[in-house]
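testing teh design pipeline on a random one, pls ignore if ur not involved
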């Protein structure tokens, strides 16, 4: 059953390396959504707020101070550290302050009568990029936090704006920013740390420098609209597309992968009116889960497919399971998320119980604006990628979950790409003729292709 339209509060994190376009991106998003009639709130960067109040990294202890200085974007904080304070406590308090400031804006969004976009200048997981993994785990443990709550459930989407130091070096500059003094190599390191911190979020987009700056801004706004399910035609996403690849096993050893996050994922299709598709997703790790309701709408044949994703509670999830479409099996996956060459990848590994067609199946997905040749150079070399299957109906999760055999199922869904290919093949096949008329054998074939029931070799037709 379709969910009724209601007021929306969309929480977005803009993060990234130095000179990545975050400030301009915020401005573009504000203008775009205010023109749509939305209310837009901008949450300030907490570290900048504290630094403007007189906090100096030079007041922190030497070991932590050096690490914090290394990751700081403020040139006033690069003096020699002195062992007078504990930077770990500062980082913990910074995170607490960030959460409280964000909560204030989130509450304003909740009480606002209009649709509301809340743009956070960095988010909770950015703090993990500035300290060791052990210290990050200690902060979470001491405060009863976990990654699923801080990363997945807290924000609807993460946008990482890749630093110009990585792929557009000729445009990297520190001249126009009073709190920026990094060289190109340090900027690349900071960019990588910030990107890695968010690996695992279900809606994470890395906006690289594969196009000019205006194209980068368009892709950034377009990725937000696409995740929100807003129809923008093709004016924003001309260069960005979702790609899917078939991967052969066996799965490489963990050490072959860059830093990754693994998740348990469960998909359940609900009853819906064709051609719409409605599904639930349960996704989590270490016993903590997030829940998403997705409505997939196709307005017309060949039209833009819109997916509206809504975060729901565990209680809503349990209640909606009563609407399960029994013609579909529940899909179980292990989802591995990782970054390679500034591309964010999700590797879905299908698990039991499953339909035999899904046994051993592995599919790799990414969003990219790169051309085909460049993208293939950026694909993970440690995976045995067989072929691209983007738009191939046989690898649609909707079809993979069908209980019935595809040859007899009336619910098998064909993508626009497959329909167009089928039409082209039919147009290319000439109809054989003898003296301008079909011969007896061709009549038999044509009738068979039109699916009448043929009784024996006599060719008697049952209508």
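output:
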């Amino acid at each position: 059953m379709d969910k009724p339209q209601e007021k929306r509060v969309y929480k977005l994190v803009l993060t990234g390396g130095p000179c990545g376009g975050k400030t301009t991106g915020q401005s573009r998003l504000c203008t775009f959504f205010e023109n749509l009639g939305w209310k837009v709130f901008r949450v300030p960067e907490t570290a900048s707020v504290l630094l403007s109040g007189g906090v100096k990294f030079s007041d922190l202890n030497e070991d932590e101070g050096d690490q914090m200085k290394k990751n700081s974007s403020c040139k006033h904080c690069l003096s020699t550290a002195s062992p007078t304070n504990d930077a770990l406590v500062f980082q913990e308090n910074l995170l607490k302050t960030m959460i409280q400031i964000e909560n204030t804006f989130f509450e304003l969004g909740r009480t606002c009568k209009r649709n509301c976009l809340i743009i956070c200048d960095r988010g909770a997981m950015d703090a993990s990029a500035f300290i060791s993994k052990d210290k990050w785990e200690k902060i979470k443990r001491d405060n009863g936090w976990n990654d699923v709550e801080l990363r997945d459930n807290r924000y609807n989407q993460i946008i990482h704006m890749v630093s110009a130091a990585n792929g557009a070096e000729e445009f990297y500059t520190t001249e126009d920013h009073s709190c920026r003094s990094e060289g190109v190599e340090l900027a690349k390191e900071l960019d990588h740390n910030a990107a890695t911190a968010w690996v695992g979020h279900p809606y994470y987009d890395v906006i690289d420098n594969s196009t000019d700056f205006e194209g980068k801004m368009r892709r950034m706004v377009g990725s937000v609209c696409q995740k929100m399910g807003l129809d923008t035609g093709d004016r924003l996403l001309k260069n960005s597309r979702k790609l899917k690849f078939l991967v052969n096993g066996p799965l490489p050893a963990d050490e072959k992968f860059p830093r990754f996050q693994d998740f348990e994922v469960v998909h359940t299709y609900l009853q819906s009116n064709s051609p719409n598709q409605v599904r639930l997703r349960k996704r989590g790790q270490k016993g903590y889960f997030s829940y998403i309701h997705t409505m997939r709408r196709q307005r017309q044949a060949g039209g833009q497919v819109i997916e509206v994703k809504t975060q729901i509670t565990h209680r809503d999830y349990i209640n909606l399971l009563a609407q399960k479409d029994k013609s579909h099996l529940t899909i179980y996956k292990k989802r591995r998320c990782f970054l390679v060459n500034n591309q964010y990848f999700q590797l879905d590994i299908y698990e039991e119980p499953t339909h035999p067609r899904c046994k051993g199946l592995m599919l790799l997905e990414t969003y990219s604006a790169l051309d085909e040749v460049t993208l293939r150079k950026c694909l993970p070399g440690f995976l045995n990628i067989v072929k691209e299957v983007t738009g191939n109906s046989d690898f649609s999760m909707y079809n993979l979950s069908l209980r019935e055999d595809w040859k007899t199922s009336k619910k098998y869904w064909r993508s626009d790409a497959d329909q167009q290919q089928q039409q082209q093949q039919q147009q290319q096949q000439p109809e054989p003729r003898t003296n301008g008329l079909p011969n007896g054998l061709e009549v038999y074939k044509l009738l068979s292709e039109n699916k009448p029931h043929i009784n024996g070799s006599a060719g008697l037709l049952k209508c």
